[in-house]
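Hello,

Following up on my earlier ticket. Below are the two sequence lines again, exactly as submitted.
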Amino acid sequence: MEKERFYTNESFKDKHLSGNFNDDLSFFDSLFKKDCTYRTRKVKIAGTNHLCALLFLDGMSSSNAVASDIIRSVFMAKAKKDFVPTPEYLSENIVYTGETKTTSSIADMLRAIMYGDTVIIIENQTSALILNTKGFRFRGVNEPPDERVETGPREGFDEVALLNVSAIRRKLQTPDFCCEVLRLGRRSDTLVMVCYLESLASRELVRLVKNRIKKIDIDGILDSNYIAESIRDRKFSPFKTIGSTERPDTVAARLLEGRVAIVVDGTPVVLTAPYLFSENFEVDEDYYQNFLVANIGRTVRILCFVLSAFAPGIFVALSCFHIGLLPTNFAISLLRLRTAVPVSSVGECLLLIFAFEILKEAGARAAKSTGQALSIVGGLVVGQAASEAGIISVPMLIVVALSCLCSVAVPRLKAAVFYLRLINLLACVCVGIVGFFTVSVLTLIYIFSIKSFTADYTDSLKKTDFQSLKDTVFRAPWYKMIKRPHFNINAKRQDTKK
Amino acid sequence: MKKIIILFCLISFTLCGCGYINPDEQYMVSAIGVEEKGALTLYAETVSIGTDKSTAEPRVFKASGKTVKDTIKNLQNGCAKSLILDHCAVIILDSNLSNETKTEVFSFCKKEKSFNISACAVKTDNIEKLLSCTPETATVGYDIYGILKQKKISKEAKIFKGIGGKIQLYTVNRKNDTPTLIYEEQNGK
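Thanks for your patience. The regenerated structure is below:
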């Protein structure tokens, strides 16, 4: 237990430099004794008899910055012999580095070293200088593969939190933009930033988000989902109650609605809260093209959700319970195509649903080069061959394929769609079309009962006036989008025309 | 409480699956013929799928009984699959059928919850002969329904009329191996 406490950054929060140069250096050496990337460089400050030591990690720090901005400047310093250099003096008169910080806390120094900064310890000084020399490699700005758009900005986040915040900041050039830093993960000590616009986000919301994040006690945070799962409402719900995106423009838009963004270092996925049900059907492109065009896509997505979740169940209910509701010719065709199929309707439906899930999973895990072959094999084997062999009937194949295809159109609801599809199928197998009505009513009740942070999940559907519904089942033209969502309690800023 | 409700729902759902029948385990009845020769005889013309699965052809089942309900029960007992009346298009009544039996047949059709509400009634001189025609559609029953619809008289022949509505019984007989409506000769329409 003692050993574990010792190896977390937090355990050093009360520890400070002793002022004994050699002792302090050997302390750091002992901490990094098994880290081959740890580097120490002793340099004599020119003009004085004092030594200073540069502590940094190879690969994390820019060797150019260390050499030219620090070592070179220290060598070229023009100080008097009897002068005692302090970290402040070094910062103000010698080093060229843009960002510097003086600290005596060992925890701060460790965090700085491990995030690519360089720490300068000076002889007989109880404080050290932290210099920004970050030089680790990052992926760069790419368009997120899952959030591609035809029109509109194409930049996406990468894995560096600071750069991600700068990408948001570039879109919101206002001092109203707040970015609070938190550290999370006992061993990973991950940088987590909570961003919001002070005049728009309610204090209650910001406090709630920060409190929930602070309560997380985990070894490491490697992705924002670690946080999302811990802080979201209705933790076991298949419906998303916290937003996630890889696009800076989406985050900026969410912040402008009074939401809070959580940027986590090491992942391009930024979380936003609160998250509303209607957001499941929104894509960035809806806002970057004419509202008439955008509304077609949005309506299709809503239809896709309904079809994807309920189509297999309804089809089984109609064909096995209420065949009289089908047109006679269709019923005869169904009869003809079902003849000699060895599996029951519900069996073949389940078989096809799981076959699709297998194909999807295999496609996601397969290398790009095998992806195409996989889709051909999947399409031919599962589709054509299985129906020709009489294992499954063609109508069921069409219904399940349509349902699965529709689920791709609403990726944010994939978990909800999957479970709803199974529950609805089960209910329809038990009581026919009554099962469908029961499940759909219960689903509606459930959706309306969900809360996301301070907002109702169906916040935008609470009222039926135009301003409430302006960005739900349809998107109104921009000049008509006057008010912000209801959960934004800043009444003075509701009117965007001001 | 929550758990009890969930448990109740689950149990009640599992007890309700009795109505589930796979489409291929059903015989879709397209026409019912009723004649009275001593006992009540019922013919059920169903849609049967050929062995090559590409064609739908008629198959006629026959059973006798005292009442319509009994006869239907006997018909069902003689079939390997469930008989479903949802798509029954025509009731073919024998020309010599007594009024009581006609009333019994219509009352059965109206009481049977799954019976097709757009079904029509016609009369014929020989049910067996009529049902042995070679159909143009899937079955003779659908052929007869098609003729009624084409002549725009299907509404008049509908069993499910409003209160006080009277069913017009048209005669359909076999002629040249096809069902033929013969009201023109009879009524001079």
